[in-house]
């Protein structure tokens, strides 16, 4: 196909309306044609505005709280190779987890393997498909040519394959862990910077929360920026929540409690929560913490542990 | 919800902050776009619970993949909407044909006016897009909306409308290019960015 013919397909591509084979052929052309990439970006922007053709719908209030709670358990993906275009999710329709190795899936092997830290210099992390390919090839050739020797040769090949596989897997685990440690460090740094900025913000307010009869030793401090809604909540002296339960922060505005973030404590009874207060909650007259189901609640149901 | 003003961080700034693990930045993006995205997801999926689930999943994906966003290749809004629509179409295509037929039959009933959010900037943008769509010839608009909201390919649209494939291709291309031109004019005159 010619450049002009590919260019004619860009609108359909921007709407994900090409058949899979057409889309693949166009992908190959796009990789080599900056003019078509620029045109596609504009058509995608136009297609995205079609989202405005449907009327907006406010999500249920607890969707936000559930989302923010889920983030704590969700690792982020570091910056990938530069050739992944912004439009990739729409273009390929491939759910991202299908093409990524979730770090949590590999992690348990690291914990149970005592020799995971052993150096494995020279192995190629991209070669983790090799053992399976080699096993098939060796077996086929052995059966055809060597007849009765097949069994012993196959066993040897399987042993080598298993060895390679184990070694490669260890390397992969190591890489994943190193990537995670780097990522955690970056996250910590970003968090510390954000907290410093918040504490120095001109619009920052600080409110103290005192323990109720349920936890007399508990106290907490909430610092928030009235303009942006960013907030940092630090608590101490709270008892560990029972299984299936967690603490939840509330903003009392116009006599009504608005749900805030959900958190648990560490072994020493400390807790920290980075929060984004919704606009309605930024002029709250008070703050409170109650014990709620782990997933959070839309209105307080449990006992109050802290209040301002 | 407040309209965006100069003191509000841009979508690009927020996405970069999310890529650095900034949860409040993600919450800000959620407050800014969750109503628009849920409207889109509901129109594609026709099921409130399903749409809310995908919405949550979309923002988890934004959290995981914010490092993929590159402002040199497009706006943050385009990235978010493309991601959301793609997740919804994936879900739609995973449903079996019978479910889809049942949903199509219920569609008119379910397309009721919703509890719309009245964000000033967004309703202004919405008005501009609706006006531009209204100026497209009916058959072009229909082809665009069938592709966008039902996830149909050109061949499927041709079969659905019982039209030659070449005709559908032309309608879709002319429709989207015309929409882009109309939006350019109108966004420029309204002082909004496209």
Report on this structure.
The complex is a heterodimer of chains A (308) and B (194). Chain A is an alpha+beta fold and 308 residues long. Chain A is 43% helix and 19% strand. Chain A has helices spanning 3-8, 10-14, 20-32, 34-48, 61-71, 88-92, 103-112, 130-146, 150-200, and strands at residues 204-211, 219-225, 230-236, 245-253, 256-263, 271-276, 286-293, 304-307. Chain A has an eight-stranded antiparallel β-sheet with strand order 5-4-7-8-1-2-3-6. In chain B, helix 2 (23-45) packs antiparallel against helix 3 (48-65). The longest helix of chain B is centred in the C-terminal third of the chain and has 26 residues, at 165-190.
Kindly report how far apart the N and C termini of chain A lie: 70 Å
| Secondary-structure element series of chain A | HHHHHHHHHEEEEEEEE
Q: How many helical stretches of chain B?
A: 9
Could you list the spans of chain B in which at least 5 consecutive residues all have pLDDT below 50?
Answer: 1-5, 108-118
Shape of chain A: extended
Q: Could you report the average pLDDT of chain A, rounded to the nearest whole number?
A: 76
- Secondary-structure element series of chain B: HHHHHHHHH
Largest sheet: spatial strand order of chain A: 5-4-7-8-1-2-3-6
Mean pLDDT of chain B: 82
How helical, in percent, are the residues of chain B? over 70%
By oligomeric state, this entry counts as: heterodimer
Largest sheet of chain A: 8 strands, antiparallel
Rg of chain A computed from alpha carbons, rounded to a whole number of angstroms: 28 Å
Count of DSSP-assigned helices of chain A:
9
Rg estimate of chain B, integer Å? 18 Å
Helix content of chain A: 40-55%
Give the amount of beta strand of chain A, in percent: 15-25%
Described by the principal axes of the CA atoms, the overall outline of chain B is globular
Give the tally of β-strands of chain A.
8
Strand content of chain B: under 5%
């Amino acid at each position: 196909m010619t450049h002009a013919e590919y260019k004619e397909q860009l609108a359909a591509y921007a709407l994900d309306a090409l058949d899979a084979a057409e889309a693949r052929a166009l992908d190959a052309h796009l990789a080599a044609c900056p003019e078509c990439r620029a045109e596609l970006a504009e058509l995608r922007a136009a297609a995205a505005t079609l989202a405005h053709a449907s009327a907006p719908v406010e999500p249920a209030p607890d969707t936000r709280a559930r989302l923010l709670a889920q983030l704590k358990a969700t690792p982020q993906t570091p910056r990938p190779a530069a050739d992944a275009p912004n439009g990739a999710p729409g273009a390929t329709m491939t759910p991202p987890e299908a093409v990524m190795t979730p770090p949590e899936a590999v992690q348990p092997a690291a914990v149970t393997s005592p020799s995971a830290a052993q150096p494995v210099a020279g192995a190629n992390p991209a070669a983790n498909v090799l053992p399976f390919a080699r096993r098939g090839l060796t077996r086929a050739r052995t059966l055809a040519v060597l007849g009765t020797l097949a069994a012993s040769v196959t066993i040897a090949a399987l042993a080598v394959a298993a060895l390679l596989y184990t070694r490669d897997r260890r390397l992969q685990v190591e890489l994943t862990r190193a990537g995670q440690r780097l990522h955690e460090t970056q996250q910590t740094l970003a968090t510390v910077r954000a907290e410093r900025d918040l504490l120095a913000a001109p619009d920052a307010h600080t409110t103290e929360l005192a323990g109720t009869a349920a936890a007399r030793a508990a106290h907490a401090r909430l610092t928030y920026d009235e303009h942006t809604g960013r907030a940092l909540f630090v608590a101490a002296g709270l008892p560990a929540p029972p299984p299936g339960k967690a603490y939840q922060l509330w903003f009392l505005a116009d006599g009504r409690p608005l749900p805030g973030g959900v958190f648990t404590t560490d072994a020493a009874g400390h807790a920290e929560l980075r929060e984004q207060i919704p606009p309605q909650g930024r002029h709250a007259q008070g703050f409170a913490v109650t014990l709620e189901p782990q997933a959070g609640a839309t209105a307080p149901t449990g006992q109050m542990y802290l209040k301002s | 919800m407040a309209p965006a003003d100069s003191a509000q961080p841009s979508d690009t700034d927020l996405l970069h902050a999310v890529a650095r693990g900034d949860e409040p930045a993600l919450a800000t993006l959620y407050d800014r776009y969750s109503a628009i995205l849920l409207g889109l997801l509901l129109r594609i999926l026709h099921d409130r619970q399903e749409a809310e689930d995908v919405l949550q999943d979309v923002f988890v994906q934004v959290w995981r993949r914010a490092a993929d966003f590159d402002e040199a290749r497009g706006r943050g809004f385009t990235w978010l909407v493309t991601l959301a629509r793609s997740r919804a179409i994936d879900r739609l295509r995973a449903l079996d044909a019978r479910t889809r037929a049942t949903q199509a039959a219920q569609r008119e009933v379910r397309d009721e006016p919703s509890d719309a959010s009245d964000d000033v900037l967004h309703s202004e943008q919405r008005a501009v897009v609706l006006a531009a769509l209204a100026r497209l010839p009916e058959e072009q608009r229909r082809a665009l909306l069938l592709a966008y909201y039902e996830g149909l390919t050109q061949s499927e649209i041709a079969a659905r409308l019982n039209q030659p494939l070449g005709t559908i291709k032309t309608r879709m291309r002319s429709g989207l290019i015309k929409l882009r031109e109309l939006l350019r004019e109108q966004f420029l005159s309204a002082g909004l960015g496209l």
